[in-house]
Amino acid sequence: MSDLPPVLWLQAFEAAARTLSFTEAGRELGVTQSAISQRIRLLEDKVGQPLFVRYPRSLALTPAGRAWLPSVQGAFTRLAEGTSEVFGPSPGAPVTLRATPAMQQTWLAPRLMRFQQMHPEVTLRLVSAIWADDFGAEGADLEIRYGHGDWNDVVAECLGQERLLPVCSSALAAELHSPDDLAGKTLLHAAGFAAGWPRWLAQAGVPGLESRCQAMICDTHVTTLALASYGGGVALSHRRLLEASRDLVAPFELDMATDEAFWLVRPASRQLRPAALELWAWLSQSNQ
């Protein structure tokens, strides 16, 4: 570590290399242009090579400066991420909640509206995630994930057992009096669901009926729900999401259980800020 240049010199280099201006770098770091110039000189003496080409009215990176810049920027990024992971964001930062678009637009939307009415001092930030790789400990205070709850390094609270049932527009529902009436209709499939149409049709007493239906496969659940609301077919949805929908109805009462569920999740490696704890408690209680 003793061979590393001081952080102030590295900050000056990163800012000057990014803006290609000692003046702009000084303005960003709250020091004078001459202070930036001095730190860069000291840094160049330390590494033994020039990092900038100085022209009368402009600035450019040398090959060594261009090659080193990604490493310096990556180091600052990792330091910021590690600090946030261990200590959390700054106290005044928005509370970030990550969830799928379907969850945000249905179950979450009315609950977050009521939360903000009760806690106007808390700023919320919603981040969308679709696939499993989109979720993780970094970048969010809380998450709502879908799965079996067997994730490492998190605290997870199950939001309840999930049941799937067909949903569609009210106009299309008027044509569906029994599961047999799905023949010839479009079944909307959401990629990634462990339980899907073949299983529901089998439980409804019409196994294999999907072979007599048109099909559309979507990569997000929210897309199947949007298509269903416009009369574009029949989707499978969680009952909890249907309860918050204004445009979808369930043509049949039969639903099926799934061993996956929605989970309220937070990193186990750090304590939540008070505002994030308020949101955790609100979402947990609003599920009861």
Characteristics of this structure?
single chain; 288 residues; alpha/beta; two-stranded antiparallel ribbon; 40% helix; transcription; transcription regulation
Write the topology of this structure.
Blueprint lengths: L6 H13 L2 H8 L3 H15 L4 E3 L4 E3 L1 H25 L7 E5 L1 H18 L5 E5 L13 E6 L6 E14 L2 H4 L12 E5 L6 H7 L10 E5 L2 H9 L4 E5 H4 L13 E12 L6 H13 L2
Parallel strand pairs: 3-4, 3-5, 7-8, 7-9
Antiparallel strand pairs: 1-2, 5-10, 6-9, 6-10
Helix pairs in contact: 1-2, 1-3, 1-4, 2-3, 5-8
Family: Belongs to the LysR transcriptional regulatory family.
InterPro entries: LysR-type_TF_proteobact-type, LysR_HTH_N, LysR_subst-bd, WH-like_DNA-bd_sf, WH_DNA-bd_sf
Protein name: Transcriptional regulator
How is this structure best described in words?
α5 (101-118) links the parallel β3 and β4. The two termini are 52 Å apart. The longest helix is centred in the first third of the chain and has 25 residues, at 63-87. The mean pLDDT is 89. The strands form 2 sheets. An 8-stranded mixed sheet has the order 4-3-5-10-6-9-7-8, sandwiched between helices. The protein is built from 10 helices and 10 strands. By secondary structure, the protein is of the alpha/beta class. Pfam families: HTH_1, LysR_substrate. Residues 9-62 form the HTH lysR-type domain. Keywords: DNA-binding, Transcription, Transcription regulation. This is Transcriptional regulator. Belongs to the LysR transcriptional regulatory family.
